[in-house]
Task: inverse folding
């Protein structure tokens, strides 16, 4: 039933890639794609083919997919520098994400942004930020415009547990609550803020409790389960759209890689990674689809192979794409020409 | 000037329903400096909002709202309060257009009151223009009275990019003839020759424009006074053309000597107009100290009309740059 999925995905626009996720098989496909993409990125860096830094999201794929299937492309998403997975899940193409990471003209903003700066307006992905927590009040503002203009739109901020210690988190949640803004705050609690374990930096183990200070509904969600996260986001989104105001969702998950490419994550307690990998979000979803009879193991093996080829094709196209032009460096600073 | 600001806000809110105004105490209380008088009554609580004391939150929200369809005008009561929200302006708002390949722009206005003269002390009296100076993607305007406050604010609200408006607080109570309506809009990036002259070009900004005009009005030399009005991007053409005629440039700043906004003007003009200059470019500034509280010291801190006049006189008569008062009086080297 998988058929020639490889070709079918390559010709899609971001909106079409988003729409494809109505099919549970496509959801698994996308999660596998994100995992393989991130693994390939790591390899490209170690091969010296990419400049700068990158932050990968292996282990957190369920949250990205759940988000993509629970909101509309017209909703606004603010995300962090660990956003390759969110971007691909929302519908960005492999070429536009990889091209951006590799500084090529084929990248989403022509290569001038790099790994931490993805955006795609057609699916509501606003510029991702390299500043921890910055997107939280901005999401509140995107929700404010929906409220003032009377649009049936909501906003989402995706951030890590580390962001819950920064002022922008508290100010953003406070403002969203007093103005009852249609916004969902999604904390990917992956246990580490950069190189530090959460217990060293945060006096509460559940970020969700912080919603209490802002009289805001909240929930702790199994971040390894697509369905659990999707259910929670859908509830929060319908509350937001119906005037019920913001929600804080804490998705418990785990970052398989270190903070950035320079970090091997050696500070992690022995066995912690392995324990989390036993509840790998992709394995769980794959098993769910196989158990329900939608797929066989042979199908998913074929999917993995096709995805690997799809990514290699994208790598080839990106490597063949010109490096970001000097002219592009001077574009989009201001609306008019720079004088 | 405060009425001119409230009128500019009201005119833009009438013209464009996407314009919203928010800040601390600006709705019910109509602004700590009464610059939003009548707005809540006319436009309602959906478009005119009091915020918590939470600059990072509401400036961030203004960025998000601007990128998704509104044209927010956020008020920062004292410019210092923007320090806690600078990330949102310098690192987010100014980059959104670039970060999205032009898909998202941020038509945001951040207004803040600035400057000394009212005894608010050193944490409520700075001008801090240079916080924004080295940030491509931002614009910065500074009115020098009611007329420019009205015209620049309307242009700022109509601009498609983030614009910071720094309003000299001491001028809120000042009165001046204002051209209202579209004819009163002052384009961003264009300076104004307030008085033509032939011996020296005097460039000033904000509160110092009035001091400069008063200083040269009684002088026996002829000064061309330019109100820069926009600091980012400043009117290089107007200033350079003037300096090429007068051969001298004096910059009058309400900012510290080290790193004040005039350093950029001096550097550029010194390079571009080198062959036209008869005298060193001279900057009249405040000393490198925090703004003192007591009235007599605050007056000393700010370049007075007499001090500006004597400094310009020295430049014109000697073709040399006079030392600032804190050096001649031995307080600083």
Result:
């Amino acid at each position: 039933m998988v058929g020639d999925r490889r070709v079918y995905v390559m010709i899609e626009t971001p909106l079409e890639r988003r729409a494809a996720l109505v099919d549970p098989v496509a959801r698994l496909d996308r999660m596998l794609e994100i995992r393989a993409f991130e693994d390939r990125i790591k390899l490209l860096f170690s091969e010296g083919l990419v400049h700068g830094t990158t932050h990968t999201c292996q282990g957190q794929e369920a949250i990205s997919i759940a988000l993509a299937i629970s909101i509309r492309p017209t909703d606004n998403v603010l995300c962090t520098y660990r956003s390759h997975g969110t971007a691909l899940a929302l519908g960005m193409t492999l070429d536009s994400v990889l091209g951006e990471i590799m500084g090529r003209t084929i990248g989403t903003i022509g290569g001038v942004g790099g790994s931490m700066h993805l955006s795609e307006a057609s699916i509501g992905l606003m510029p991702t930020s390299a500043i921890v927590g910055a997107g939280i009040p901005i999401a509140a503002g995107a929700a404010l415009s929906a409220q003032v203009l009377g649009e049936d739109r909501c906003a989402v901020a995706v951030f890590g547990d580390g962001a819950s210690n920064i002022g922008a988190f508290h100010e953003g949640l406070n403002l969203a609550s007093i103005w009852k803004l249609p916004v969902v705050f999604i904390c990917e609690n992956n246990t580490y803020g950069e190189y530090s374990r959460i217990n060293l930096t945060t006096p509460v183990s559940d970020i969700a409790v912080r919603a209490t200070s802002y009289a805001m509904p909240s929930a702790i969600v199994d971040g390894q389960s697509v369905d659990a996260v999707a259910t929670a986001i859908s509830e929060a989104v319908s509350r937001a759209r119906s005037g019920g105001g913001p929600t804080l969702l804490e998705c418990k998950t785990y970052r398989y890689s270190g903070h950035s490419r320079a970090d091997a994550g050696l500070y992690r307690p022995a066995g912690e990674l392995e324990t989390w990998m036993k509840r790998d979000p992709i394995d769980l979803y794959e098993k769910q689809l196989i158990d329900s009879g939608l797929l066989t193991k042979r199908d998913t093996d074929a999917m993995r192979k096709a995805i690997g080829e799809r990514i290699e094709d994208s790598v080839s196209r990106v490597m063949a794409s010109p490096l970001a032009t000097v002219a592009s460096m001077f574009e989009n600073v201001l609306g008019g020409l720079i004088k | 000037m405060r009425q001119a600001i409230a009128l500019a806000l009201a005119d833009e809110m009438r013209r464009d329903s996407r314009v919203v105004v928010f800040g601390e105490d600006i709705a019910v209380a109509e602004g700590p400096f009464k610059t939003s008088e009548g707005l809540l009554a006319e436009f309602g609580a959906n478009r005119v909002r009091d915020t918590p004391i939470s600059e990072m939150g509401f400036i961030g929200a203004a960025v998000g709202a601007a990128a998704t369809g509104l044209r927010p005008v956020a008020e920062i009561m004292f410019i210092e309060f923007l320090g806690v929200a600078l990330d949102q302006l310098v690192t987010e708002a100014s980059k959104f257009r670039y970060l999205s390949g032009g898909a998202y722009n941020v038509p945001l206005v951040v207004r803040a009151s600035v400057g000394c003269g009212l005894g608010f002390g050193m944490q409520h009296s700075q001008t801090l223009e240079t916080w924004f100076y080295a940030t491509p993607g931002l614009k910065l305007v500074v009115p020098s009275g009611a007329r420019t406050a009205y015209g620049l604010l309307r242009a700022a609200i109509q601009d498609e990019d983030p614009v910071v408006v720094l309003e000299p607080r001491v001028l809120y109570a000042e009165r001046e003839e204002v051209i209202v309506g579209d004819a009163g809009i002052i384009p961003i990036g264009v300076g104004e020759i307030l008085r033509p002259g032939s011996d020296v070009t005097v460039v000033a900004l904000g509160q110092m424009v009035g001091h400069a005009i008063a200083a040269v009005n009684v002088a026996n030399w002829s000064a061309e006074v330019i109100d820069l009005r926009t600091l980012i991007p400043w009117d290089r053409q107007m200033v350079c053309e003037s300096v090429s005629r007068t051969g001298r440039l004096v910059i009058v700043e309400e900012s510290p000597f080290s790193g004040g906004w005039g350093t950029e003007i001096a550097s550029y003009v010194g390079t571009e107009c080198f062959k036209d200059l008869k005298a060193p470019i001279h900057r009249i500034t405040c000393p490198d100290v925090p703004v003192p509280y007591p009235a007599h010291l605050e007056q000393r801190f700010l370049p007075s009309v007499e001090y500006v006049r004597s400094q310009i006189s020295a430049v014109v008569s000697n073709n040399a740059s006079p030392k600032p008062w804190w050096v001649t009086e031995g307080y600083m080297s």
Summary: Chain A touches chain B through 48 residues (CB under 8 Å). Residues 297-320 of chain A form the longest helix (24 residues).
